[in-house]
Design goal:
The protein has one domain. It has 2 helices and 3 strands. The longest helix has 21 residues. It binds zinc ion (ZN). Zinc ion binds next to loops.
Amino acid sequence: MDKYCPNCKRMVGVKKNMMPGIITIVVGLLIALFLPFVCLIVGAPVALVGVVLLILGGSKCSICGSKT
Ligand SMILES: [Zn+2]
C-alpha cells in the first residue's frame, strides 16, 4: 500500500502498525474481566489509550516514520 509522504516528498510504502493498539485494548479488556472493581478505574482508560494508539499508529511512513 503506497501513500504520498509530505516529509519524504514522494510515494512511500505505508506499514500498518496496529499491534500495540490491539494489545493495549486486549490488556484493558482482560483487566476489566478479571478485576471488575478495578475495571472502571484502570481498564477503561487502558482501553481508551489502545483506541488512541490504533488511530494514531494506523499508518506510518516506512522511511521517516511520520504519520500521513
Ligand atoms: Zn516519509
